[in-house]
Amino acid sequence: VGAVVGATYPTELVELRRRMLHVPLLIPGYGSQGGTAADVAAAFRPDGLGAIVNNSRGINFAYRSGPLAAEFGPRRWEAAVEAATKQMIADLAGVLVRPAE
After folding, report:
1. Domain range for residue 23?
2. Residue 83: CA atoms inside 13 Å, Cβ hemisphere, count?
3. Adjacent-strand bridge partners of 25
4. What is the pLDDT along the chain (101 residues), one digit of tens a residue?
5. Which of 50, 58, 59, 82 qualifies as a cystine partner to 45, CB 3.0-4.6 A?
6. Which molecular-function annotation in GO is an example for this chain (predicted)?
């Protein structure tokens, strides 16, 4: 069992993660819908796991709108998908605290 918590509700996300430390969270609303990496950082457990952040619109249509559209366009949609995915990974990695090894 898990929970779905929108990226555009970061205050609630903090509280729900605190109450449900071991529950996996699905986080829609990232990217095109306004949620940022900083907004979803609290969804992850201290070990950096526990959340799946969804950005399907921002990735699938990166060639059509947003900052990557001018660079890639429809003919290079695959490259836009790759660039958008890498950017999301970098953004999320930038806000996650990594546990000491």
Report:
1. 3-95
2. 16
3. 3, 51
4. 899 999 999 999 999 999 999 999 999 999 989 999 999 999 999 889 999 999 999 999 999 988 899 999 999 999 999 999 999 999 999 999 766 66
5. 50
6. orotidine-5'-phosphate decarboxylase activity
